[in-house]
Amino acid sequence: MDEVTIVKYNPNWPLFFQQEADRIREVLKGDLIARIAHFGSTAVPGLAAKPIIDLLVGVRSLSEAKQLAVSRLETLGYAYWRNNPEPRRMFLVKGLPPNGPRTHHIHMVEPNSVLWERLLFRDYLCQHSDEAARYAQLKYHLALRFSGDREAYTAGKAEYVASVMEKARDDDSFKTLES
């Protein structure tokens, strides 16, 4: 079973992100990749998380990425979700059970994707430790309740994430880390 497990923050997560980003750039040489960002809970210092590094990979064209990137990323141990119901995103998992545990997720999108706005959530939590602590408590609670159901776990966070995103948008003093 692919259980949802939350662990204490690992200070090596930024290093694990950088190492994997370098591997991805190496196998996808050329100008297909526009940008790679660390996002998700492992990108927030001190935040408890599932021990899975989320990489947001911006590519100039998803159709080109489907042709070029999938087979190359499979050489790094990634499995591509071909039946993803979201056509504007490619999703790949490293360590997909039964070959697990999961270690990395690639969310591949074009530069204009709304998924880039999730960096706002990451940056807000980085700058508001009280909000990050509330999020950690919610994640622990949901992981206990939905340990065997990743979709329910993720759905359980949706309202909270949306409320934090709204706070970030409305906070005139808030600046993203990439501004």
Automatic annotation (TrEMBL):
SUPFAM superfamilies xref list: Nucleotidyltransferase
Segment forming the signal sequence: none
Database matches in InterPro entries: GrpB/CoaE (IPR007344), NT_sf (IPR043519)
The protein, known as: GrpB family protein
Organism encoding this protein: Zarconia navalis LEGE 11467
